[in-house]
Amino acid sequence: MEKLKCPVPVFIPLIVGVIAVSFSSIFVKLSDAPVSVQGMYRLLFTVLFMLPFSAKHVMEAKRITSRQCLLLFLSGLFLALHFLLWMGSLKLTTVASSTIILALQPVFVLIGAFFLFNEKTSPSLLAGMGVAICGAVFIGWGDIGISPENLLGDVLSLLGTLAVAVHMLIGQHLLRRIPSFFYSLSVFVSAISVFACYNLAAGIPMVGYAKQDWTIFFLLAIIPTVFGHVLFNWLMKYVSAKTISFNILGEPVGASILAYFMLNEHITIFQAAGGFLVCTGLYVFLKTNHVKDSSLSQSV
Description:
By secondary structure, the protein is an all-alpha fold. 74% of the residues lie in helices and 0% in strands. The protein has helices at residues 11-22, 24-30, 35-50, 66-89, 95-102, 105-117, 123-144, 148-174, 180-202, 211-235, 241-247, 250-262, 269-292. Helix 1 packs antiparallel against helix 10 (211-235), helix 3 (35-50) crosses helix 10 and helix 11 runs antiparallel to helix 13. The two termini are 20 Å apart.
C-alpha cells in the first residue's frame, strides 16, 4: 500500500520527536519509583491528555474488527514490555550504553519487515546491520569490565529493543487501516492495563510517591510520549517503520549529552567506539533507504 504524502516536511516532526525522546532516559534516572509504576503513569497521563481530543474518534471503534482488537492489545503489550525492560536497564547501566543499544531497533524492524511484509533487503543494508551489531557487542564487552550489573542492563536494553520493534511492526500494519490517534489511544490503554496487572501481581504500590516522582511521571507523558511516540505513530501513516527507526538514531547522541550535563555520566572508550560503530552501521542503512524510498526524496 502506498504511503500518503505528509502535510509537513518529514524532517520537522522527526527532529522534534528525536529531541523529545532523548529526555526519556534522563527522566527515568531522576525518579526513584519502580519502572513499572513510571511506565504506567507515563501512559496514563498521556491518555488523560489525549481524551479531550478523542470524541470524534469514538465512532471509529465500531469499525474495528476482532482481529484488529487483538493486534491493538498485542501492540500495547509489547510497548509495555519495552518500557519495563528498557527503563529497567537504566537502573543498571549508563544512559549511553542503554540508548545506543536501543538504537539497534531498526535491525529488528528490518528483519521483521522482511519476514512479515516481504520488504527486500540489499547487501548494503545487511552490511550496515552487521557493523551496528558489532558496535553493540563492543559496548557489552566493555561493560563486562565495569560490572556484571552493567552487562545485565545492556541485556535488558536489548530485549526492550526487540519488544519495541515488534510494537512498531504491528503498528505499521494497523496504521494502514486505522487512524493514528485511535491507534495510539488504544495501544496506550492496553499497555496501562498490562502495567496495572503487573504491579498488582508483583505487589508494587501504585500510590504514595514523592512530589518529584509525580512531576517526572507527568514530564514523561508530555515530552517523550506525546511529542515522541505519538508523533512517530502519526508519522507512520506517511513513512515506513524502518525510516522512523533509523531517524531516531539521534536519541543516543542527545541522551548521552543530556546525561553528561544533568547526571554527570561520562562516556567510556568502549561506549564511544561501540556507539561510533552503531551509528556508522545505521547510517549505511539510512543512506540506502533514502535512495530507495522515493516518497521521502524531498523531505528527509
